[in-house]
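It is worth pausing here to work through a concrete case rather than discussing structure prediction in the abstract. The textbook approach is simple: state the sequence, then state the predicted structure, then interpret. We follow exactly that order.
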Amino acid sequence: MKYHFASIIVLLTTLVSCTGKKAGEVENHWPYAGITYEIFIQSFYDSDGDGIGDFNGVTKKLDHVKELGANAIWFMPIMPSPSYHKYDVTDYKAVHPDYGTMEDFKNLIKEAHKKDIKIVIDLIINHTSSEHPWFLESKSSRENPYRDYYVWAQKDTIADFINKKTITLDSDNIRQWHDPGFGEDFYYGFFYGGMPDLNFDNPKVREEIYEIGRFWLEEVGVDGFRLDAAKHIFPDDRPEDNHAFWKEFRQKMQAIKSDVYLVGEVYDRKEVVAPYLPGLPALFNFDFHYTLIEAYQKEDGMLLAKKQKEVLDFYLDITKDFIDATFSSNHDQPRLLNSLDQNPRKMKQAINILMTMPGAPYLYYGEEIGMLGLKPDEHIREPFLWDIKANDKGRASWIDPVHSIDDMVTPLAIQKSMSTSYFNHYKEIIKLRNSNRALALGNLELYEGELAQPLMAYFRSHKDQAVFVAHNLSDVEQSLEIPEEYQKVLYTFGSADLQDQKVKLPAYSTIVIERQ
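Step two, the predicted structure:
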């Protein structure tokens, strides 16, 4: 076998060998291969009865994250903002009062760290809110000291561009230039007029951003940042400037906190994503998400395995030090169960795939209980169901849910007592990953024997452990033969079975077999 992950695995081996844990014990492989749980606080747990989730609610439910097996939490925006989603910030050094106080948040971090859970927050620096004090000053006059904090142009210089924009994967906005109300000077806002883009050609803006990073890392105590809209710091026709900025940003943040965690959202193809790796060591793998769904639609098992290997090999040509942030759904995508035809077997198997593939998986809150959700975005971010409605004192009520309602989703309290529930399935497969270094840290090699189209099969190996993994992405039973040295069955789902080196895979089943 070829070892494409050699350099990363050496680093990971060094990291985990210091734990002194024996093979088979649960280990924390974050950030390189650990699991991060994404939370929209507004919908998570309401501790004070105002209908909105809050910091104290998350603190109360940290044991849920720990029980699930996650190693870190990524919080969607927590800073003051006029919108429910809070991706348009009005104050970079404060928290939204709906969520609680800064002291509440610091206490959350302290309690999370006691449980060995890291805290990552969304940092939105591509743009601010149009209500941010910087922008209010900037638009007041051409002479204002904050004028150059944003990108301005006179109407006659941008006449051909005012109503011209190419739609991108992460924005369907068709208007980039916006009139603040005077009809003379227009400002640039990639996503929409309420989110004016900052001018990163201005050294003062960059210094402001570095100071904001220092504040959250040093004074508040977070462990890192998820960087929103990372490829839009400069316009899309200036990718080299974007790459250079993130290298500088990384250097500045590491000077403050040497082990700072940075994960970037570069919503694009691998060819566009990869050059960001030297600045953003972790990047979300959108190819993984979309190809996972496509593999089920086409019943083409190796489609995803081949794509993942292709992406990883491509990234290794850029840098040997990267974190592949894989995910099956997030706050911008339909809920996974909706994407998989609300088929419980597909849903459970999809998580088996995510947890047995290389990478550092992200889990979106609520997926572990099979929550449902479709666009618009508010309805992908509906309140978590902790218990039946009559008993659910912490259920948020800021929105009337359309998809994740009691008639459609079984609450967590009920699922805990159901051996076949989504929640218990998540716990089981996460524990398998966290207790087998081949699954968490190993390289990826594709099965090269004869294979029926719906089958996905691959090998994962790390040091002296090697495992074979197979999934049947169809409702028709399949089979395949495997090397004779693979005999110890570590995990089965859906009545998969091994007999005389022949694997039997019923509909939507999974098997993991260790080499002896």
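Step three, interpretation. Residues 203-220 form the longest helix (18 residues). The two ends are 16 Å apart (CA to CA).
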